[in-house]
Amino acid sequence: MNTNLDINHFLDQDQKKDLLRLLTAGSVDDGKSTLIGRLLFDSKKIYEDQLSALERDSKRMGHAGEAIDYALLLDGLKAEREQGITIDVAYRYFSTSKRKFIIADTPGHEQYTRNMVTGASTANLAIILIDARKGVITQTKRHTFLVSLLGIKHVVVAVNKMDLMEYSESTFNTICADYKSFTTTLSIPDITFIPLSALKGENVVENSANMPWYHGKCLLEFLESVHVVSDRNFEDFRFPVQYVLRPSLDFRGFSGKIASGIVRKGDELMVLPSRKKSIVTEIITANGTTDYAFPPQAVTITLKDEIDISRGDMLVHPDNQPRFERQFEAMLVWMDEKKMDPNTQFFIKHSANTSRARIDGIKYRVDVNTLQQSDCKAFSLNEIGRVVITTNKPLFFDPYHKNHSTGAFILIDPITHNTAAVGMIIDKLNTNDIPSRITDPETRRMIDSGQSLIGRDELEKRYQQKGVTIWITGLHGSGKNVLAYNLERRLFDSGATVVLLEGSTVRAGLSRELDYSPADRAEHLRRVAHVCKMLNDQGIIVVASFISPTESIRQQISEIIGNERFHLILMRAGLDYCRTNKPELYLKVEKGELRHLPGVDEAYEMPESPQLTFDVTEKQADVEVLMAYLAGQNIFPLE
Amino acid sequence: MADQLNNYSINNLRELEAEAIYIIREVASEFEKPVMLYSIGKDSSVMVRLAEKAFYPGKVPFPLMHIDSKWKFQEMIEFREKYTKDNNWDLIVEHNIEGFEAGIGPFTHGSKVHTDVMKTQALLQALDKHRFDAAFGGARRDEEKSRAKERIFSFRDKFHQWDPKNQRPELWDIYNTRVHKGESIRVFPISNWTELDIWQYIRLEKIPIVPLYFAKKRPIVDIDGNLIMVDDDRMPAELVAKAQMRMVRFRTLGCYPLTGAIESEADTIEKIVEEMMTVTKSERTTRVIDFDQEGSMEQKKREGYF
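Output (structure tokens, whole complex):
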């Protein structure tokens, strides 16, 4: 560099540069690392000592003979240096007099789709390398598909190793034509082709004399001049509230990054989800206040009215609102080594919101090599497909192609907390289009035979409990209902899914025509038992509170529900206790106004071996004892 | 306004600034007990300023923590005290008391043992002691090869270990902040900054930095090509005897016996940048610890050092 350099001038100029984030895709063989090394080297950003360390490395592990191996400059981690491949996204930085660049360098091997998707998520532009000797190959298609999936708007197709094809214009033209025909179905607005030789530095930083037929810009010149600012969405103002700033009682600011659109002082804004409106009083940036702000600025907005706003809310213009739904379709990329389990309730993180989400259905899987769609039940690592997702609470979103910031999300595994998948929202789902579960012959057979398509293990996983019946027996007045209602409340509060059944409500409807005679009582309890069975089949815990006076009736109930799901709880209490507790019915029987009250004019047979007994005359029945029993039996919570 | 290139675009530095502020706020929102690790170096100084901006006009909702190896340059400690006091920061200072009482130091035990005990172990002890679930660091990806692939949110297991094969994919600006009890995340808000960006920002924002970064005549001993400053009387006398006054400055700051100076006349930020643009050595080469073994920074990262 010129020693007469006016450093202040240099720094002032440097400040005026903008930032371009680019992705490079290609394999080691395509010369990708060499190309990046060239860009870095030729823009004079490789320091001398890195070069001298490199010479030492090259002697031991180099792949390029005597010449400097640029790839070694780039590969960071020891393990992969020894394997000779890059296995993760590496970020590189360089700067020219016109622009600053961040390169996301991603490997091209098939098993590393994950990494390429990662690198592409923040890139404005992608360089796709093609080896001129090989032309458009499967890998090229895969890279291009991923680039278009992630919505990168500018692609540079770098046709490398032109030196090995005698700088042939026709070779280059053939490759361009092949590539264009393949990309017609993909949405990439801007594609540029550049013939070059990374190894010889031709058309990389300087135009090549060996390819006079090429009149376009060399790679670096193109990167310096490509216009990317207008790629941002300045139309739809979206401001996810990231942090509520409240240093004192008289200041309340809402901090966040402007996801898209422009906001001005004095604008009327609407808060989602409350839909309350207010006026922007101030926009505070990192460097004082401003009259207007735009992406990707991080600002703090204050409003005229005191409205309750918290993290996860969104500020928008009232006439331009995002979608607000619990269900949507998305393209999903599976990022986890662990295969997708369709029953998992994932965490979904979307802008400043975290909720729970379920993958309701897979519409299809895309083969990244052929772009063919096929049926699929669950994704494995690096698989991509279209899914329907339902979230616990509604999200504010836009389709990804319109707005990356509000259209992207990640799914987090609830157990390992790994990022299991990433997604791009496609469009608002029309409810008529919600797919039923994928049908195949096996599914049909199950439906026809009345079998649920949801397995018991799936239900247990969803509800975190076993569907059983807690059947409470005892004399009238022994406190069955008090225990039953308390247990229901306690289970519900602990997160269980529970239904309570007791005599008076069932008799008011389902058993309305039945009386208290032994025959009708048996029919009444038979119906109750079948309801218990159906609910248990759905994975739901039933708390049933019925006198159920005889051993044979209880036996019949147990068989209907399933012996292993029937848990009998006895409220042992003397008649005196019960009569004192609930005197009305006992009095009526004594007066002859009522018949068939077990324990008085009908037999009440104490069960011989209930799973649990409460001696209520001595001590009030304790719900916690029952809870401990359920835990001990691994019914709820499920281990 | 120089920050804006035209009506609706900001320059590279303001873009990096916005990215860092967003990251810092995200941590403050999503973690229970974050801390900002403070090394007193220039990168730390930038990070601290970004945190101040992120919560302006409020106070930063987390403390700074300095792991004092007891061998830092004296000027660093003076600077730390003044800066944190002037700017109303909550400051935590921790060190490995056992190591200190055992007299561990670079002159007696070598750089490897010293760094492990007084820096790495001290940091891990402090993180455990305070049960921090997120710790900001000022590392940058362009500093060193092994950092080029570091995540912005870097996951650590409950032993604070970094496993390069077990890092979470990081897409867009959606950061997975979920950790189990005992696990933690190291967060690097200035990952995407280069050394030039740091200097440029210090210049624009007039961020105070430790004077050791600027050239001055200092007592220097040449130890195997490393220019080590005599900072206190713990340096062995036979070395002190060789000291000469030389015009030097430091490109990075750490423990004084492990941090080599470079000969320089650069006594302003502009001159430093000018020197940097023409300089022949990259940043970390003046840190003695990197030369212990190949891939050594990666090794230290696995063990829990940044």
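Confidence is low (pLDDT under 50) at residues 45-52, 58-66, 76-86, 431-439 of chain A.
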